[in-house]
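Entry 12.
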Amino acid sequence: MCAAVLFPLTEVEEVQVETCAVGSRVSSLDCEVEGIALGVTTALKYFGQYVSRNSVEEIYVFCDCASAVDSVDKMQFRTRPDIFNKFQDIINQVQDLSIKVTLVKIIDHSGIPGNDIADSLAKEVASE
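Predicted 3D structure (tokens):
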């Protein structure tokens, strides 16, 4: 399982939480990479619903797995062409919507609310 938490631009909107089943025989790296993809696609859906936006929007995706961030930065996914294709599609959508994506490596359990929520939710859903 992986999870993503989106903090909206305004305080009026609610925090959005998404989860995704990754598979039963995947590595933790694959789960983290899928989490990055889920975070970006959640943001794409969020910005896609607005007609009037800034000329360029920025999103920050926080991940506590340096290997996953490096894999996405370098577009190197070992034996997972499906992940490569998924990120190619994400890149096209990001460009079409004029969104700048910044991946941020964070320290595990560093008290960042979105990361803590995503980690606990992914573990909770996986144990069900």
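Annotation: The CA atoms of residues 4 and 39 lie 5 Å apart. The radius of gyration is 14 Å.
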